[in-house]
Amino acid sequence: MEIAIEGSQVKAILVELCTILQKSPTFPQELTLVGAQVLYQSFRKEMGSTKMESTMRKYTDAAFQGMLIRYVTLDDSRNIKELIKTISSNCPEPLIVIDFAQEAPTTSKTEVDVYFFHCPYPFLPSKEKLEADYKERQLKPVDLYTLITLNVLSPCLFLENFNNATYWAKDEEWYFAFFSKEYMYVNEYPDSDPWPTDPRKIWFAGIR
Length: 208
Hints:
Layout: H1 7-23, H2 29-46, H3 51-64, E1 67-73, H4 80-88, E2 93-96, H5 98-102, E3 111-118, H6 127-136, E4 140-141, H7 144-153, H8 155-159, E5 163-170, E6 173-179, E7 183-188, E8 202-207
Parallel strand pairs: 2-7, 5-8
Antiparallel strand pairs: 1-3, 3-8, 4-8, 5-6, 6-7
Helix pairs in contact: 1-2, 2-3, 4-7
């Protein structure tokens, strides 16, 4: 069955759908079946192949895969040490090695779409398993500067609701960064110690 809507309704539905995708860790089944179909059909009829259609498809496809997307604008006037001081100021248990953070890879981009996927395990995955999980989703780990910037810019909308993490490798050593309201960690990848929070609540961050 084909569903048609008026062109004037496109923006309102788009805003509503994006709002739900931004806030919800899961994608409602009824929105999957109806909302995406309505939007795609309407975009083809009313707007053709536009940037808005491409953006909507990106968000919808990510939601189908159980992922979230956050758009980040980067400001290189703030160094990572300043960002860490800001983000950890209200955290009761920050375990952050500044030297490791300052030596972490960075990006030259000024605008980034960050994809988040949910940790499917009741334990922190091994380095090899986590690397495979990223590849399965066609993602690369997001750099630490971008992830901290996202958390600093939207602590109430994101950090308070979604524990998030990334990793990187340098000189054959692996490092792990984790951020939540209660606990923050930037250090060597934890291979054996039990993780202090429920790993099933972690959203791993990546880019394409």
